[in-house]
Amino acid sequence: AVDSGAGVLFIVKNYTGDVLNFDMAAELAEEEGIEVAKVLVDDDVAVTDSLYTAGRRGTGATLFVEKIAGAAADERRPLAEIAGLATRVNAASRSFGVALSAVSTPAKGGPTFDLPPGELELGVGIHGEPGRERRPMMTAGEIADHAVHAVLDDLSGEGPVLLLVNGMGGTPLLELYGFTAEVHRVLGERGVPVARSLVGNYVTSLDMAGASVTVCRADEELLRLWDAPV
């Protein structure tokens, strides 16, 4: 149903289960004569390997990759070109997440990890896997300092960025916008202009309270595709 004759692009977050399932789906599609390409999203700077991954996890950059690849597909570009563009977006993106509470899953029937009141988890993943460091509760400004420096210190290049401040699912928009103001402050202090910004719950973890910061170095082509109405 998805294939229109031009092929199918799989955009896969780097989690072992996701990768295995999409690899099997690609094999089945190819057996039916459908051209397939895959882009792996691995933008999370918090950890190199985790409970569910080999390598970095895929998080907020998925939104940038999907939106820009979708705009390129709307222009009827070839599949290989769209896959290359999506790979470039992923390579230009970095993310860092913070949890103020653990996610509760139906399968577990409660929190996936123990996070006492008055503490937060730095570098948390969207599937409830713990982060790389636990600290006493910090202010929004302190969290922004930590998250923004983490992503920028790992990101090469210069110039404007796309910014996503993503809610984990249980944080009110009012708090997300307050946090976003602090993120803009830190980016300004680092001399990084924000070309476009987006705030909301996009790559979530059910009821987890927290947020992630994603930036993507964006040239004129990426900005034009980001602005496209798709």
Describe this structure in words.
By secondary structure, the protein is of the alpha+beta class. It folds into two domains: 8-91, 3-Layer(aba) Sandwich (Rossmann fold), CATH 3.40.50; 94-227, Dihydroxyacetone kinase, domain 2 (Hypothetical Protein Tm841, Chain: A,domain 3). Helices cover 36% and strands 23% of the residues. It has six helices and ten strands; from the N terminus they run βαβααβββββαβαββα. The chain has helices spanning 16-31, 61-74, 79-91, 140-153, 173-189, 220-227, and strands at 8-13, 36-41, 93-99, 104-105, 110-111, 119-122, 133-136, 161-167, 194-200, 210-217. The strands form three sheets. It has a six-stranded mixed sheet. It has a two-stranded parallel sheet with strand order 1-2. A two-stranded antiparallel ribbon has the order 4-5. Strand 4 (104-105) and strand 5 form a beta hairpin. Helix 2 packs antiparallel against helix 3 (79-91). The radius of gyration is 18 Å and the shape is globular. The protein starts with 7 loop residues before the first strand and ends with a helix. The mean pLDDT is 92.
Please describe the topology of this protein.
Layout lengths: L7 E6 L2 H16 L4 E6 L19 H14 L4 H13 L1 E7 L4 E2 L4 E2 L7 E4 L10 E4 L3 H14 L7 E7 L5 H17 L4 E7 L9 E8 L2 H8 L3
Helix pairs in contact: 2-3, 4-5
Summarize this structure briefly.
By secondary structure, this protein is α+β, with helices and mostly antiparallel strands.
